[in-house]
Each structure stands twice: as structure tokens, then as C-alpha cells.
Amino acid sequence: QGALKTGFYSSSCPNAESIVRSTVEAHFNKDPTLAAALLRLHFHDCFVQGCDGSVLIDAASAERKALPNLGLRGFQVIDDAKWQLEATCPGVVSCADILALAARDAVDLSGGHSWGVPTGRRDGRISSSSDASTLPSPLDSVAIQRQKFAAKGLNDHDLVTLVGAHTIGQTDCLFFRYRLYNFTATGNADPSLNQAFLAQLRSVCPKDGDGSKRVDLDKDSPLNFDVNFFKNVRDGNGILESDQRLWGDDSTRRIVNNYAGNIIGLLGF
Ligand code: HEM
Ligand SMILES: [Ca+2]
Ligand SMILES: [Ca+2]
After folding, report:
1. What is d(CA 191, CA 64) in angstroms, rounded to the nearest whole number?
2. Fold of 142-261
3. Is residue 107 predicted with pLDDT exceeding 50?
């Protein structure tokens, strides 16, 4: 892997970034939930073997077959962009770069910030489901989340900022329903859950109901890339246990609070 730089394709494939953009836009206009899918796809690629497109490889025991990756979506958007790029500049643009550009465009289209994406990644050929164990689980404590991110050179600020991606997208009841009923065998719900929200979640995800029912990770603006996710974590309205735990640790709480726009957080208390 050589050094990455923004505009890596400016002479070899000048339209590379605009082709990715228009492809993402066309899919997004039909289904805006694909923005979340693309952002998550990029994260799951980068967290395993680096940003090398390994998550895209479709083979018997590839990463895609690992449990944390079974819910990944949006592959068709990347395939579509790659197909168009091959017609324009054959063999030039890597799938790993397409993924990184598509994630940027997805956030931008959802009303978030935009950024320049350094490009020049090369696609890897190795993809093994067992390597996906480095990915975080929704049951992880802050200590474990911190450890998994630190293994990639990422600190608490990076962790909280990146998890802020949950301002868009959804999850299955299956991944958090245990918090609503017999949490840690107490017979009660997770005490960190906001009571009013708990009642709502119980009606959407009944104890013995359909575990694949989808629920917004940010109850207030699941299609908008904004700070509501952090306000929800502050208020006990985080869906995933891993998200809500960020409020229970002094260091990550301060960062969540800052993003939520609290004065007390901004002053650094
Ligand atoms: C401690 C870290 C994290 C954990 C435990 C975690 C876990 C999860 C889980 C369990 C889901 C729901 C999957 C499903 O129901 O199919 C999810 C969805 C999602 N995650 Fe994360 N995640 C983490 C960090 C991140 C990061 C760093 C990003 C991106 C920068 C991200 C982006 C997303 C997005 C956008 C969705 C919604 C996907 C969709 O609607 O299709 N997550 N995450
Ligand atoms: Ca990878
Ligand atoms: Ca939001």
C-alpha cells in the first residue's frame, strides 16, 4: 500500500469521484436508508485487515459470512459504481476506494459534513470470516470497545465520534431486546434505559415477537446525520447497550456531552 492522497485518480481516471457520487446519489434517491448501509460497510471493511475491500469478497468462508457481517447491506451500490468505473477506466479504481468515497457521499447526502477522501488503496485478496472477531459487539463494555479501537490506533474521542455514525440507520430487535425484559437475569429492564422510551420499545419488540423487526438507532432523526444520537445517549435513549454504556464512563461521557451540545461538557467538567 503506497501513500494515499486526495485526488489520486485525477489523471488516471478524472471522473472517478463523480461517477461514485452519481451512483450513490441515484441509489440514495430510491432508498435513503442505503446511506447507513454504505457507511457501515466502510467501517466493517476498515476494521478487518484495513480498508482493503476485504468485506466485499463473496466466498464460502469470507468475512461476509461472519456473524457481525450478516446484516450488511449496500453491496449492489458498490458493484454498480465498480461496473461503471470499469467501463470508463478499466482496472484503475480499487473497490476499497469506491467504498471510502461512497461512505463520504452517503454522509454528505444525509446532511452531514463532507470531507476530502485520500485515495490510492489497493484491494486485498484475503478475506476470512474468523478475522471478523476484531469487530465490536453491541454487548461490549466501554473497556472492551476502548480496547478494540485502541488496537487500531484510535482513542476515546475517535471511538465516540465514530460510533456517532449511529445517528443514521437501524438495528434488529434481536440485538437489544434482552435489555427490555430480563436484563442480566434481574427480571427487570436495563436501569439505564429511559422509562418512557422503554415502554415504546417493548411495544415494538415484544418478548417473544419477531426478532428481525427493525428499529431506528437514533429515534429522532434516523435519516439525518446530526447530533441527536448523542442527545439520545445522554437521555437514556440509546438503543444498543454498547451505545448507552458510553454515558456510564467518565471519559466517553464527557465527549458525548460535548457533541450533545451541553455547556457543562463544553467547559470540560
Ligand atoms: C462499539 C462500536 C460499534 C458497535 C458495537 C456497533 C454495532 C452495530 C449493530 C449491532 C448494528 C445493527 C446491525 C443490524 O441490526 O443489522 C449497527 C448498525 C450500524 N452501524 Fe454500528 N457499531 C459500532 C460502531 C460503528 C461505527 C464506527 C460505524 C461507522 C463509522 C457504524 C455504523 C453503523 C451504521 C450506519 C449502522 C446502521 C446500518 C443500517 O441501517 O443498515 N457503527 N452497528
Ligand atoms: Ca478490510
Ligand atoms: Ca440522526
Report:
1. 35
2. Peroxidase; domain 2 (1.10.420)
3. yes
> Could you tell me which CATH class the domain 5-134 is placed in?
mainly alpha
ipTM over 0.85: yes
Ligand 1: nearest atom to the Cα of 214: 15
For the annotated catalytic residues, the residue numbers are: 44
Position 59, amino acid: A
With 70 as the cut, is the pLDDT of residue 268 above it?
Answer: no
Measured distance CA(123)–CA(10) in Å, rounded: 19
The verdict on the CB of residue 161 being under 6 Å from ligand 1 is no
Give me the sign of the Cα torsion angle 137, 141, 147, 150.
Answer: positive
* In the chain, domain spans: 5-134, 142-261
Among the atoms of ligand 1, which is closest to the Cα of residue 145?
1
pTM score:
0.96
Testing ligand 1's pocket by substitution, the residue of 31, 160, 166, 239 carrying the most ligand atoms inside 8 A of its CB is: 166
Tens-place pLDDT, residues 26-35? 999 999 999 9
Name the residue at shortest CA distance from atom 2 of ligand 1. Answer: 136
